[in-house]
Amino acid sequence: MSHILVIDDDDFFREVLVQMLQKDGHQVTEARDGVQALALLQRTHPDLIMTDILMPHMDGVEFITELSRQSNNTPVIAMSGGRRAITAAFNLESAKLMGVKVTLSKPIGHSALNAALREILG
After folding, report:
1. Gene3D superfamilies, from UniProt (predicted)?
2. Can you tell me the distance from the alpha carbon of 58 to that of 60, in angstroms, rounded to the nearest whole number?
3. For site-directed labelling of 10, which of 29, 63, 69, 80 has its Cα 20 to 30 A away?
């Protein structure tokens, strides 16, 4: 299967997502924010990155921008549940404007996750 980097500051959500991915046979590396993820990318090369948009320290938009700056072409799935005045749809549209092809609104069901993985990984 694939090696997937999951970036999300919500420990509970990240753990559930990791468990779903591992159950399907994927190898998973975890990060709590974009800063930690960039450090991990110095020593690991995932097939796919799944990142939340709203996170402390370095959010998903900043992380995607840095990937592009580094010419890292690893495919990205952007995820968002939105917060207060900023909706998930707005966050995910921002990611699409940055070149992200697949987005997921939280909470994410197993079938939606699998459909997104098939779209990105084939």
Report:
1. 3.40.50.2300
2. 7
3. 69
Residue 32: how many CA atoms within 13 Å on its side-chain side?
A: 5
| pLDDT per residue as tens digits for the range 30-75 | 999 999 999 999 999 999 999 999 999 999 999 999 999 999 999 9
Measured distance CA(55)–CA(41) in Å, rounded: 18
Number of CB atoms found within 10 A of residue 85's CB: 6
Which residues, in sequence order, are bridge partners of residue 100?
none
> What is the pLDDT averaged over residues 74-93?
79
Nearest to 50 by CA among 81, 18, 24, 82: 18
- Nearest alpha-carbon partner for 53 in 85, 22, 83: 83
CATH of the domain at 19: 3.40.50.2300
Q: Is the peptide bond before 107 cis (omega within 30 degrees of 0)?
A: yes
| More confident: 25 or 88 | 25
Q: What does the pLDDT read at residue 94?
A: 80
